[in-house]
Amino acid sequence: MAATTTPNTNNNESVKARPTDEELQKVFDQFDANKDGKISATELGAVLKSLGSTYTESEIERVMEDIDTDRDGYINLEEFAAICRSSSSSSSPSTELKDAFDLYDQDKNGLISSSELHLVLNRLGMKCSFDDCTRMITSVDSDGDGNVNFQEFEKMMSTNITN
User: Fold this and answer.
1) Nearest 5°: CA angle at 5, between 15 and 142?
2) Which uninterrupted H or E stretch holds 39?
3) pLDDT of amino acid 12
4) I want to staple 121 with a disulfide (CB 3.0 to 4.6 A). Which of 104, 113, 126, 159 is the partner?
């Protein structure tokens, strides 16, 4: 137990690592529904809505104004990368990890079930079967309750980052 609570500067550096160009392109492509190389306000709103957010049109317009630095009405990959990289360097890894966990914990009960994982991955365009999601959950479910709690999620993510 002590090993997991002792800070390790190498692990912290890994957690704070900036996203790679390939990772950013994959995420950008999830937002860019019509594959025209730019994200419109409509596409941004659709992705945020599919993830359970309740942004109003005016809030989405404000987000677009903040990110769209060339003022062409769209978010291009360069603008998208800039905002992703700045937010990944300014927020703490533990906050980002909790936000990621909360994205999957759709019913906000502190657990990620196979059905929640299946729902979110499919909303993000990653086609996984329910059985695939159950196998993913089982592989990190150390307490055997059929779900992933935050501690299990945190352990899984730190293992993936350092390997």
Assistant:
1) 85
2) strand 38-39
3) 41
4) 126
Phi, psi (deg, nearest 5) at residue 111: -135, 145
Q: How many CB atoms lie within 10 A of CB 54?
A: 7
Distances 45 to 26, 68, 134 between C-alpha atoms, Å: 18, 15, 29
The tens digit of pLDDT for each residue in 21-44 reads 888 898 889 889 999 999 999 999
Output the CA–CA distances (angstroms, integers) from residue 25 to 22, 33, 43, 110, in the order listed. Answer: 5, 13, 16, 30
Ramachandran assignment for 52, one of left (phi > 0), alpha (psi -120 to 50 degrees), beta (any other): left
What structural domains and CATH numbers belong to the chain?
A: 18-90 (1.10.238.10), 91-163 (1.10.238.10)
Q: Which H or E run contains 38?
A: strand 38-39
Ranges in the chain, pLDDT < 50: 1-16, 161-163
User: Cα 9 from chain centroid?
Assistant: 23
Q: How many CB atoms are located within 10 Å of the residue 142 CB? A: 12
Q: Would you give the distance in Å from CA 24 to the centre of its chain?
A: 11
The gap from C-alpha 43 to its chain's centroid, in whole angstroms, comes to: 17
